[in-house]
Design goal:
- The protein is an all-alpha fold.
- Helix content is 69%, strand content 0%.
- It has helices spanning 23-28, 33-56, 63-75, 79-87, 91-123, 131-151, 159-170, 174-189, 195-215.
- Helix 2 packs across helix 5 (91-123).
- The radius of gyration is 17 Å and the shape is globular.
- The two termini are 14 Å apart.
Length: 224
Amino acid sequence: MPDDGAVVTAGPLTPPPDSAGTGADTRAFQHTVAEDVQGMVLAALVASLGLAVFAQGGIMIGGMAGVSFLLHYALGWNFGIVFVLVNLPFYWIAVRRMGWEFTIKTFLAVGATGLLTDLLPRWVGWAYMSPAFAAIVGGVLSGLGILFFIRHRASLGGVGILAVYLQRSRGISAGKVQLVFDALLMAIALTVLSPAKVMYSTLGAVVLSLLLMFNHRPNRYMGV
């Protein structure tokens, strides 16, 4: 899934001209601890609701969340636990490239989102969820959750961290790395899910990517 970068700001989206690039501008773009806590909690709630919608529709998404869904569907493994475990190898890259603050927040974000995704079906009764609805609404909600995490210098981990690392160290396009990974994942998914559900899963991944593309832009705010 697309969730990485290097610098996050807070506060006003566009600083006033007389403060841009100054120490006052830097201070204006810092979150307080309380702002970070409420932002991370909100992000985890929204992202987990999106992933729970995907699960109820019997579809998946790209990135390591998609890997976790695939293992959940194929082997019956707990999604939340798998989601935490498959992200572990990426944290050493995050520490080296994005620092401890980003890495710790991302670890907490992944853990909280995975736990809530597992718990939500116990709290909410789903009568019916069509795969098409799950793809669109799940993609939107998951994308919004990622945006909220980005706003508070965190992410949902995964291949996006590796993609940014390869772009910075090797000059390989992060977008292409993510695209190739997700395409391979969807191809593998055909061995577990029906072609129709893989198609809807691809739609969900596209919806999420479009939401990030339109909303995660430097002229609106800077993310990680």
